[in-house]
Structures are given as structure tokens and as C-alpha cells.
């Protein structure tokens, strides 16, 4: 079945930057809204950022002004540029996609990836 594949995670010093990428494994329908979530082991999933079909974006309060979500419609790749990283940004980061932006932001997305670990030292 179609799934999302994240890449770009790793370890970085506080204050540094990382860029995450997300691509579908195959053609994905009804997935115009795309976003990122993160989760720390033992805690709930947290909304990070989302982008709709027109390019409008939304960010979680904890990352506003530091993270930038973008997409390449030609390559069908979703990105998350993470700047001025803090230790509290350490988490597993998940890519998600859905037709409805509101559902996506709420965490009720149709498609999910398996995650990529980000560790800020």
C-alpha cells in the first residue's frame, strides 16, 4: 500500500539546523494537504506544521518562527527546514497527508510515514 517515507533526521547541536524530507512510495490520491508531527516516547503526538494545496501554511506555537514547511510539486517532496534547534525539539518526526487540511492539522490524516528521529544535543 502507499506510504510516506521520511528522511533527513539525525543528531545536531543545539542552535543548528536540519532539513527533513518526505516522499510518497507511490501515487497518492486525495493528499493535497501535507504536514509534520512529532512525538516523544511516552507523550502524545504534537502538531508541527502543515501546508495546503495552495501553499498556505500553519505552524505549532513551539516551532513558529524557527521551522519552515515547503513542498516541491514537481518532485512531489515535502520539506521541513528546522532552524535554531533546541533540545526540546528532540523527537520522532512524522510526515502526514490528507485531502482535508483541517483533518490533517487535527492529526486525523489518511497517510502517515514511519518517522525519522531528530536528536538535538
Description:
The protein has 121 residues and is mostly beta strands. It is built from 1 helix and 11 strands, in the order βββββββββαββ. It has one helix spanning 101-105; strands at residues 4-7, 10-12, 18-24, 33-39, 46-51, 57-59, 67-72, 77-82, 91-98, 111-112, 116-120. Strands 2, 4, 5, 6, 9, 10 and 11 form a 7-stranded mixed β-sheet that branches. A 4-stranded antiparallel β-sheet has the order 1-3-8-7, with no helix packed on it. A hairpin with a 6-residue loop joins strand 4 and strand 5 (46-51). The longest helix has 5 residues, at 101-105. The model has no long low-confidence stretch (mean pLDDT 94).
Give the SSE order as H and E letters: EEEEEEEEEHEE
Class computed from helices, strands and strand pairing: mainly beta
Beta-strand percentage range = over 45%
Task: Please tell me how large the radius of gyration is.
Answer: 13 Å
The total of beta strands comes to 11
Amino acid at each position: 500500500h502507499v506510504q510516506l517515507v521520511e528522511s533527513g533526521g539525525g543528531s545536531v547541536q543545539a542552535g543548528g539546523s536540519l532539513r527533513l524530507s518526505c516522499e510518497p512510495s507511490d501515487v497518492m490520491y486525495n493528499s493535497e494537504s501535507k504536514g509534520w508531527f512529532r512525538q516523544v516516547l511516552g507523550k502524545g503526538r504534537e502538531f508541527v506544521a502543515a501546508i495546503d494545496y495552495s501553499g498556505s501554511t500553519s505552524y505549532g506555537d513551539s516551532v513558529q518562527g524557527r521551522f519552515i514547511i515547503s513542498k516541491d510539486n514537481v518532485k512531489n517532496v515535502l520539506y521541513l527546514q528546522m532552524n535554531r534547534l533546541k533540545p526540546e525539539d528532540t523527537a520522532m518526526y512524522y510526515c502526514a497527508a490528507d485531502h482535508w487540511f483541517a483533518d490533517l492539522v487535527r492529526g486525523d490524516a489518511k497517510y502517515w510515514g514511519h518517522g525519522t528521529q531528530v536528536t538535538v544535543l
